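Pinned message: reference record for 4-hydroxy-tetrahydrodipicolinate synthase
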Amino acid sequence: MTQGHPPRSNSPRKGSEFAGLSVAIITPFTDGEVDYARLREQIEFQVDAGTTCIVPAGTTGESPTLSHDEHERVITEVIQCVAGRAKVMAGTGSNSTAEALRLTRRAAKEGADATLQVAPYYNKPSQEGFYQHFKAIAEDAGIPVCVYNIPGRTGKEIDVETIQRLSGLAGITMVKEATGKLDQCSAILGTTDLTVLSGDDSLTLPMMSVGAEGVISVVGNLAPGPMIEMVNAAAAGDFATARQLHHRMFALCSNMLGIASNPIPLKAAMQMVGRDSGDLRLPMTPLNEDEAQRLRETLFAFGLQESASV
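Predicted structure (tokens):
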């Protein structure tokens, strides 16, 4: 078994420049087409809020439904709109290593600051296959790589031992940890020098309590301010304040995202609070009326008052 090197206590972790709130930005659709004007509005909202990093073309951005041309243009539009005011971590992963390499090369050429690389999905590679896939990308990309471990979506988990091996590669600097297991987060932090970012909004504070440095957030599309406050409080060691904010955010995170698959409830919520992010693309379908009412109640309880009249 190959082990990573424990981080030195007086050294920053690789990828620590991405600490804070990253937002997995939605892709707005109008009449079946990507609505780039609305996308730019969403980006300005995040930049104004002080979000550290924008993450386009991820799961929240409905990347499985984007054509190759749309995928590339969404990333380019985000980079150009952000214009250096925040970081951009482009979602350029694929279950084909060649396709991931192609998307990543283009994003790097366009000026992306990093790449989010989801574990190859559906074909369920071996742990050696995972390692060789990410190694090929890390050695070719020229920008930092964030390994995205989300077995609930991909069908197979990247083992801690594989992440430990990957940590020895200079290009691998971060992990988006969405296994839902705090033990996995602790093991990665205890045996590597990688920056860990939560992939579950409701687990951000627990993960930061053991050394994670932020979150790649869904709920941040809707309420970046409280998420930034919570992450900043935890980073400063003010866990009393961070706990208060965690408990305030928890119901929104768990109730909203528990209604239906992301980004179905997120897009509905944004419409309810007057920040319409457009349509969904099949196979994603809207909430039914019972689900929509539960969402309205969740938003109202959180204090997003515009939802009361929708």
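Pinned by admin. Summary line: The longest helix spans residues 239-259.
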